[in-house]
């Protein structure tokens, strides 16, 4: 390791703090164009690069606060609440006072320091001071010594680790696209009723039922009449399947009080008519100890919905059998501590974890179990809709900590399609969610490889 040297961080970078403009001055935030990052923006954030946070600030806000405009490739490090979130600025950026950021000297690679800091979080935490909450000061960070190699070695390490993270990020991006596809299908079929509307409009214009079916096929497939004709000749099986899907939709609407026009024959139902909703287990801190059982907690939810793999807490206490959850089950967040309330009422689908034999939902979580598996993905997509989110928000109580009322989820009413369409939707979306799960499993494997390589590379063993 002759090309490695113990160096203070102040020898390789300028350490810069951040600040928060006065929240009472709207002109410091309104229509701001300067990206402003807080530790909250990095909570659950798994990408290496970040371009913006939840809020921007204005030039005026920047000038009238301790926030600094940081150049692209600055390594952002949270210095409190909590310590050790790391990201690289992909453009000019600013932060609040919860950061001590590294503007690297020439000859040092941002991606290397991203990995170096993530691998030394325990050291940074041990150097933090404070009684109310721990914080690592700018001076302590400047004086922190780490083993740092020359430029070529930094590049070699980055070249080994980056492909793993790039593949993880690509899989995550693919999963976001796949989920958007499933949500788009759900919205078109069961919120906007596009295929039914296409049929009804065609018939209202005096067209035949066959022409109405063709109109629905166009909406469902996104193809022109000419492309559908070609499909019928080149892939008759696919065309026949599309025709069957279109046929499953009604051709007219009827009025239902409170819902307006809905497809004829569809019924209004409550969630508790098609599923059971079970709340999780309250626990004591003394029950959080090493175990093969883990609690699925509020931290298991991404902001805006979706499952986080790093939100589990090992648990040794008792629980009811119905509070155990399994891979693929739908869970809903029943509590929220975020200012923007962007977790409460949000859905996620449980992922298995090979480290644990049992997963149990905590009191902050509810599991929604459909009586028929045909509702599995339908319910997840339903819980993502604006109407479901607005409904659950109306059941929220509390100020600093929000709580969802017991009946919030069971009482939600929706327009339930015919059973044939439920089966069609399940068939259409199952491959999408299966691919999402495969990508998540691959990411878990890639992360394991990366995390095994990281300390060895940074110790000069490889």
Automatic annotation (TrEMBL):
Residues 1-180, 263-447 form the Type I restriction modification DNA specificity domain. Keywords: DNA-binding, Restriction system. CDD domains: RMtype1_S_EcoJA69PI-TRD1-CR1_like. One of its GO terms (molecular function) is DNA binding. The keyword Disulfide bond does not apply. The keyword DNA repair does not apply. It comes from the Bacteria. Pfam families: Methylase_S (PF01420). One of its GO terms (biological process) is DNA restriction-modification system. Belongs to the type-I restriction system S methylase family. PANTHER family: TYPE I RESTRICTION ENZYME HINDI SPECIFICITY SUBUNIT (PTHR30408:SF13), TYPE-1 RESTRICTION ENZYME ECOKI SPECIFICITY PROTEIN (PTHR30408). This is Type I site-specific deoxyribonuclease. It comes from Rodentibacter rarus.
């Amino acid at each position: 390791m002759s090309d490695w040297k113990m160096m203070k961080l102040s020898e390789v970078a300028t350490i810069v703090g951040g600040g928060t403009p006065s929240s009472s001055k709207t002109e410091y935030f309104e229509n701001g164009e300067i990206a402003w990052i807080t530790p909250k923006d990095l909570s659950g954030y798994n990408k290496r690069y970040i371009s913006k946070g939840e809020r921007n600030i204005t030039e005026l806000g920047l000038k009238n606060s301790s926030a600094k405009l940081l150049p692209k490739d600055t390594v952002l490090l949270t210095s409190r609440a909590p310590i050790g979130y790391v990201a690289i600025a992909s453009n000019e950026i600013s932060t609040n006072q919860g950061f001590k950021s590294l503007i690297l000297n020439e000859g040092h690679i941002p991606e290397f320091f991203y990995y170096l800091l993530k691998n030394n979080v325990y050291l940074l935490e041990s150097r933090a001071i404070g009684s109310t909450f721990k914080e690592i000061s700018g001076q302590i960070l400047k004086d922190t010594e780490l083993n740092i190699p020359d430029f070529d070695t930094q590049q070699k390490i980055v070249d080994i680790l980056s492909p793993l993270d790039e593949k993880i990020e690509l899989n995550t991006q693919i999963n976001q696209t796949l989920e958007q596809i499933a949500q788009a299908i759900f919205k078109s079929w069961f919120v906007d009723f596009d295929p039914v509307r296409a049929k009804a409009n065609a018939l209202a214009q005096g067209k035949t039922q066959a022409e109405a079916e063709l109109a629905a096929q166009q909406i469902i497939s996104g193809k022109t009449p000419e492309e559908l004709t070609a499909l019928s000749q080149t892939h008759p099986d696919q065309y026949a399947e599309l025709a069957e899907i279109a046929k499953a939709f009604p051709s007219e609407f009827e009025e239902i009080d409170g819902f307006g026009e809905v497809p004829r024959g569809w019924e209004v139902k409550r969630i508790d008519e098609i599923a059971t909703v079970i709340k999780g287990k309250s626990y004591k801190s003394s029950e959080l100890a090493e175990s093969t059982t883990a609690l699925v907690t509020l931290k298991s939810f991404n902001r805006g919905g979706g499952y986080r793999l790093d939100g589990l807490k090992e648990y040794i206490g008792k629980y009811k059998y119905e509070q155990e959850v399994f891979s693929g089950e739908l869970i809903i967040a029943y509590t929220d501590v975020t200012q923007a309330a962007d977790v409460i009422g949000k859905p996620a689908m449980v992922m298995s974890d090979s480290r644990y034999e049992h997963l149990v939902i905590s009191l902050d979580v509810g599991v929604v179990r459909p009586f028929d598996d045909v509702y599995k993905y339908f319910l997840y997509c339903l819980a993502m809709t604006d109407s479901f989110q607005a409904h659950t928000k109306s059941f929220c109580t509390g100020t600093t900590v929000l709580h969802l009322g017991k009946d919030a989820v069971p009482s939600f009413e929706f327009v339930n399609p015919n059973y044939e369409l439920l089966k069609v939707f399940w068939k259409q979306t199952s491959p999408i969610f299966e691919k999402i799960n495969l990508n998540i499993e691959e990411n878990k494997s890639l992360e394991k490889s990366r995390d095994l390589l990281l300390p060895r590379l940074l110790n000069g063993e490889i």
